[in-house]
Input
Amino acid sequence: MLSSAHLIYMSGQISEGMAYLEDRNIVHRDLAARNILVGDDLVCKVADFGLARIIRDSVYTASRNTKIPVRWTAPEAALHQRFSVKSDVWSFGVLLYEMMSRGKMPYEGSFLNKEVMTILTSGYRLACPTRCPENIYKIMMDCWAAEPSKRPSFHALHSQLDDMDCNVLVLSQRKRSQI
Output
């Protein structure tokens, strides 16, 4: 079973991959656990670029009939078809939820997609998963800021997660040396 330390390590790699896309003005539009490839030594790669687009002026506006994964999509993208790096950041928060909940479906239960949008626009956010470190849940909540400009960049997310990963590594090495 993967520990929180493993999941932090993996999420740091995913945020680094998304920072790469951010630098190239590419919006993924379908960031979710199902679209992450995991290889040997837990090496993670962002995959499935079928919905990805190059953005101009920081936003890509999709046509109204575009199918989108509502449970992973920021409200401004789902309601107004306005996708940006910041809507990908929202999706990254949901991906973190999937990872830390060990694979739970976001907004599980009988919620229809329309109901998910209604509760999100009224301020509801997913609860902290069991065994999820508080600092990771804070990152999720930062990713789910109602105002897109208040969401962190992928570079900031990578820096935070990389720092956490290094701290976990140092602590685990200390524990081993005390044995």
